[in-house]
Amino acid sequence: MLTPKNLEAIAQQLHNTLPQGLKNVGNDLDEKFKQILQAQLARLDVVTREEFDVQSQVLLRTREKLNELEKRLDELAKDAQS
Fold first, then answer.
1. What GO cellular component entries does it have (predicted)?
2. Domain residue extents for the chain
């Protein structure tokens, strides 16, 4: 996942590729690069790691409940056949 630190690293890499004359304008360009990258990343359909972990836990609990219900249903079906 891209974090603010990663965005800064990418912006720095972009800055480093500029010719020396343009590097003097560096701070303004760094900020513009960050703004552009953040705007583009905001348009992507992604979630944070925290959101992903929360949803994974919800899914795990749901799977456990489903397994329990399937087991109870099987037991009830066996009892009904008896």
1. cytosol
2. 1-46, 48-81
